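re: ur question from earlier - yeah i can do the single chain one, its not a big deal. heres the input i used so u can compare w yours
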Amino acid sequence: MIRSLVFFFSIVTLPYISFSQNPVLEHGRLRVVGHQLCNKQGKPVQLRGMSQFGLMHMPECLSYESFRVLRDDWNSSVIRIPVYMANYSTSNNYNQNPEWNNILIDSCVAWSERLGVYCIIDWHNDRYGSPVDVHHSGAAAFFEMVSSKYSGKKNIIYELFNEPYGTTAPWDTIAEYANRIMPIIRKNDPDAVIIIGCSDWDQKLQSIDTAKLNDNTNVMFAFHFYAASHRSLYPIFAEYIHRIPVFVSEWGMCESSGAGMLDTAVSSLFLRTMKQHILDKDTVSISWCNFSYGDKEESTSSLKPHSCADALWNNTTAGGDFVKYWLNNNRSPVMPLSKLKKK
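and the output i got, formated as tokens:
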């Protein structure tokens, strides 16, 4: 692992190289206008891309070349970087090994900046659902560090807390957390877009009360869905994207467990809606990240097992084929969707 960290660190020092396909150069610093994510000219923009599985779980999937392939072959304009704050399965979570994680974050930010893609830095909860849990006590210091270090970078987006859940994470608690963390970011990076989660694993958009926030400028709200489990969430989603600014920072084709069959029909329903949806003459486009650009042997992975270790960045699963097609064409594949099976 020491050898890998030396590699990651060395990439950070590479000079910037311009490319013809450069979303950040095209759109610049993003901002929120009404309930729509917009570019530097104030025109609506839809980011589409991939969420990594997580720094601590699959560092072998993180490289300059994998990021370049996501941009050039998959047409990703955004890459989400989940920083797991605590997890029972490894000692490399952020709370236990911040230096290791910081090196990877530095590298991911440098690669995304060099390639001209947007980068979401996600304080990733998956086990301790409330922001008041002691395991999240380092969040303020974390966002102080990253917002200071990356201040002014046009491509950085901050996601404050992945998937709050449980009885101890109602909207009031989430809002209190956001009101504590956002001023830290604003002090260092005042114009950045900030994504705030909502109750019930980022599913309960109707719980959000923006009046409880002290700052609503360039603020968006996370919504997550897994198509095989969450068809029932669609009506609320289709309504609330016209009421508040929503960013689907994580979605999958399978069940919410990460397993099971792929539901391409419901996936396409959400994706068509996110491409463009009109309600009462109001038109919105919703940005999204698919979970995950990883090679774990489970349904939600877009790469086949062992792809990352072998640097096979286009060694896609059936789900990966489907998402890659959407990223490149922003529409459903021509193939009969019923024939798309889990691999």
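Confidence is low (pLDDT under 50) at residues 1-20. not sure if urs matches, ping me
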